[in-house]
Amino acid sequence: MLVVVVTLPRRTLASRCLLVVCVLVLLLRAASAESFWHNPVKVVAPDRMTVVMPAGSGEIPLFLSADWSHALPGIRRAVIVVPGIDRNAAVTMHGVVAARDAAGEQGRATLLIVAQFLVPTDMRAFQLPPATLRWGVDAWSAGEPALGPVPLSSYDVLDAILRHLADPAILPDLTEVVVAGHSAGGQMVQRYAVVGHDDSHLAARGIHVRYVVANPSSYLYFSDDRPEPVDAASCPVFNRWRFGLTGAPAYVGAATGLEERYAARDVVYLLGTADIDPNHAALDKSCGAEAQGPYRLARGQAFFAYLKARHPRMTTQHLVLVPGVAHSSVRMFGSACGMAALFESAGCSDLPP
């Protein structure tokens, strides 16, 4: 429980009221931010996938648009989406289904998968079985090990999904996979595009992989360059994991050649032009994130400029602006450019056909 005591000097009634209103606004912002971390989800996804690794196994909840336990001939594209810090996979699934349907012909023959990374609050609220994977409140978005039942990285889960999609007995006609995330999910996807292990199974079948990074709070940089001044003495974490590769989780392993591989990958940075609130409740306000810019739009534009400066011949990555959209996964993925990024539909001039 947060208790704030405010001592008011002798002022006019109006000025006192203004100060009280300002304090209440700050408290409401803090409470809103707190809810992202500690409130349980409203719905747990109904499907399950067992992730088996040498360390053990655990189950991840999923929303699936079709039963992938048997062959799905005719499916040519699979779209994996990771929700934001609220873990609201039901809303995310509803949004991407609507976007797929609105994409028309390009959206057909698509398998949709929304992965839900739960936390202990969710486990208690729904009395979930012990085999269910769960993470610290924001650890899943950074690829950290699960709290239980075994310490699998959230990136191990994405690896397992990609391996399943690569099985020709399940998806014999698959030609394209999109891994997308919004907000904290966008952070997870951007870092996974750098350090992920298992898209090689898809590459072996000639299946193309695209990563769609929508409105994240921060990015993984490859050097200590930042768009904003940063004092390493007062902010020693600015270039550590999740902002840099130093101190990366065990999943990452030897961090060699990652930047070159990343620069060659198909990545779309999907940014809402109205996502410009420097005090948004779910915006990372740590010094490491603030060094990347004041708000999400600025941080995304700065990161793309940084990457282009380091790789001037890079042609596989694109910065795509969604006019008038703030921090909404439904509106981002349902926009013309969102549908183009996910389903290669027409109507987005920032993406080549």
Walk me through this protein's architecture.
- The chain is an alpha/beta fold.
- The chain has helices at residues 13-38, 89-102, 120-126, 154-165, 184-195, 200-204, 258-263, 287-290, 296-310, 329-334, 336-343, and strands at residues 47-53, 56-64, 77-82, 110-115, 176-182, 208-214, 266-272, 317-322.
- The protein has a single domain, classed as Alpha/Beta hydrolase fold, catalytic domain (Rossmann fold, 3-Layer(aba) Sandwich).
- The chain has 11 helices and 8 strands.
- It is globular.
- The relative contact order is 0.13.
- Mean pLDDT is 91; it is low at 1-33.
Given the helix and strand composition, which structural class is it?
alpha/beta
The percentage helix is: 25-40%
CATH topology group: Rossmann fold
Put simply, the count of helices is 11
